[in-house]
């Protein structure tokens, strides 16, 4: 049964309190002020909710989830089965305990591996992925492509996207079987923090073997093939 908006909000607030408390002993977020965290973690996490809801039904993954943002608020708001992935195992172990404390471990699980390793374990399994503050778009497309089902969506949370960053991604989207389908700009409630939500759809198999070796997507991004 879907949770009421009130329950979702209540659990998200409780999760944020637990993160800020845990943050005193392990670095889960650089934001320590409660009000700032409410805007930059809870409100910002839900900026892409419509785009996540528009993706096909099925498994949701938050790539480079850190302290569980935007993954946990989006999991609560959508009710989707969710996997949070971050290569820092210690962070994922703490996040997993917090999820357990809230009784959410049936719905939300964590994976303390690199995204490239998750792609080897669970290829083509995700209907929707999010990534906030993780990498340049070109790298996000490469990391996501092998994880997504055909028709699945990658929802990227960005502050601002330069023409250079966007063009670099557009130049390899065909190679990766991905396609930009929407771009939306908005401001958070302070009226000045800018967000851009870009959505890419998995249209076809990538035309190269993925994942490449660990680290390559981020360290040596793909260039268009002649
Ligand atoms: C700047 S943090 C952002 C955390 C969170 N998404 C947020 O917006 O609050 C980026 C996170 O991505 C993780 N990360 C970077 N590359 C990764 C990879 N290839 N596989 C898994 N995690 C990765 C890092 O460990 C780090 O926790």
UniProtKB/TrEMBL annotation:
It is an enzyme of class 2 (transferase). It is found in: Cytoplasm. It comes from the Bacteria. The keyword S-adenosyl-L-methionine applies. Specifically methylates the N7 position of a guanine in 16S rRNA. NCBIfam families: rsmG_gidB. This is Ribosomal RNA small subunit methyltransferase G.
């Amino acid at each position: 049964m879907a949770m009421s908006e009130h329950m979702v909000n209540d659990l998200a607030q409780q999760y944020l309190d637990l993160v800020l408390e845990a943050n005193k002993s392990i670095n889960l977020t650089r934001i320590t002020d409660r009000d700032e965290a409410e805007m930059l973690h809870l409100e910002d996490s839900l900026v892409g909710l419509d785009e996540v809801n528009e993706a096909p039904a099925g498994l949701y993954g938050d790539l480079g989830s850190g302290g569980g943002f935007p993954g946990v608020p989006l999991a609560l708001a959508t009710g989707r089965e969710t996997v949070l992935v971050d290569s820092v195992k210690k962070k994922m172990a703490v996040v997993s305990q917090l999820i357990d404390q809230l009784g959410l471990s049936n719905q939300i699980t964590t994976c303390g591996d690199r995204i490239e390793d998750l792609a080897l374990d669970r290829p083509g399994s995700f209907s929707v992925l999010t990534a906030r503050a993780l990498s340049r778009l070109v790298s996000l497309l490469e990391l996501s492509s092998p994880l997504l089902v055909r028709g699945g969506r990658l929802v990227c949370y960005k502050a601002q996207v330069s023409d250079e960053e966007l063009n670099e991604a557009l130049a390899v989207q065909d190679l990766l079987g991905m396609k930009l389908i929407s771009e939306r700009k908005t401001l958070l409630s302070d009226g000045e923090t800018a967000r851009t939500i870009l959505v890419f759809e998995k249209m076809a198999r990538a035309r190269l073997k993925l994942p490449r070796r660990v680290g390559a997507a981020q360290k040596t991004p793909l260039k268009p093939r002649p």
